[in-house]
Amino acid sequence: MTTVVYNYSAVLGEITLMTPAFNASSTSTFNVSVTPTASARCVELLNSSSGPPAMYEPIERYIISAVLFLFPCLTMLGNVMVIVAVLTHKRLQTVTNAFVVSLAIADIMVAILVMPFGIYQQFNNKNWQLGRTWCLITSSFDVMFTTTSIFNLSGLAIDRYLAICRPFTHELLTRRKVILMLSFCWSVPILISFVPILLEWNHIGIEDYVNCAFPPEDPSQCTFIVNKGFALICSSIAFYVPTVFIVICNVYIFRTARKQAMQIRSLELSAHRHHRKGKLKHETKAAKTVGIIMGCFFICWLPFFIMNIIDPFIGYKIPYNIWAVALWLGYINSTLNPFLYYNFNRHYKMAFRRLLSCKVCRGISEFQDDVVPSTLCAEMSHSASANSNSNLHNGRHSIPHSQINFNVDL
Hints:
- By secondary structure, this protein is mostly helical.
- The protein has helices at 40-47, 58-88, 95-113, 115-123, 132-165, 167-170, 175-198, 207-213, 228-265, 271-313, 320-344, 346-356, 366-393; strands at residues 2-9, 14-17, 21-22, 30-36.
- Strands 1, 2, 3 and 4 form a four-stranded mixed beta sheet that branches.
């Protein structure tokens, strides 16, 4: 008996004749069986969704891919410089910068294990040829490193809060405790990314839509779809709850810093108060830098996480291009962090300049850079004082010492 199987697609509205399978039979007759793979339910689900992604011409795909390729390169270069700067400069080897290095590692992993696959899909018009398993793994990496980044930012917020609001408690923040905090920042994201995604918990309750939009027998598409429960729980753990926590910490930080600054101004300055004021100024600047970094993170990732919550509740109607822009805006945050350190942190700026001028390669330490200007300042100040005293003895008019300004930024 010969069987001819027809694949009727209600979505495309066509009948495709499949290769017939011939079986030996004593009769010359054959049966025709029509097997529909898409029901009316599929038509209804897909018609109410956003539809397939836009297809681009080859020249457009080359341009888009070339532009996107710049971001992993800049991300790698900038964050490697951050790590090298901390490792080679004693001033940067602090508790705060332990979280900065951890954040830089997460950003490098985004550049290596997440961005290239996004570029691959853009270049191939979303045609995925790397297999179903690797699709799940790359989606897990995406969720994991995003969550790791915001957990490290939470660690930075805790460190700044303790340094300004609870300075004595901050002194008890030992190396072991920092390692435990960093371990938490990496282990929890692994549990909330790889475990549910590889087990496909994100498809529970939406199996009909997933099977219609992304048939299991067609591995040429790789899209991360989540149900309502997964969207709410995962987004809350990875973004919304840490965001609220970080905002509260920063509110306390800046309130305390302003209150202490007003108290210091109202008192007479002594040597001890000079020291306290200088320390507070240093801690406040560090908190300001951390606040700017956190603000950029929220601006970059907020559109994505808003859509991640909304899309399952409106039937997956957000167009693909809007998703792509929001997702890459989040990826670009990994590129921005080193530039923020350079612009808003004097020690990082000095370290980056020393790395780019190859002073580290020549064995010139950061403290040797300070010797010459400090010695020169002292000699010039001593010489000016001596000339002033000499002019006073000779009865000649001299420039007041208060008008001599040496602006040496150490």
